[in-house]
Amino acid sequence: MKLPRWLQNYCRNQRFINMKIKKGDNVLVISGKDKGRTAKVMKAFPKEMGILVEGINMKSKHVRAKRQGEQGQVVKISAPIDVSDVKFLCPKCGKATRLGYKVEENKKFRICKKCKSEV
Ligand SMILES: [Zn+2]
Fold it and tell me: Which of 47, 60, 113, 119 falls between 20 and 30 A from 68, CA-CA?
């Protein structure tokens, strides 16, 4: 079943609000060919609900020679993956967990749902 576009956008916006994983977080990959690996988030794309994770989802990219006489080469780069393909790794309790929010004095904190500590 295909959802109407407005509903797709609506869902995406809802997810946008709920994107809790940020740059510098450690995550556990839970699907795809890198399943089971842990790595660090290098970049977050909240609008696309994507993240770029170090060494995960490596893709080969052909780089053309810039000057004459130089050889083109193949470089490996990480491609963004969907945020739903990973789980947050709590630095406090070391478990793969979900994140919640806590609001205190108009400040918003992310908290680990397992050990309840701020992350
Ligand atoms: Zn924790």
Answer: 60
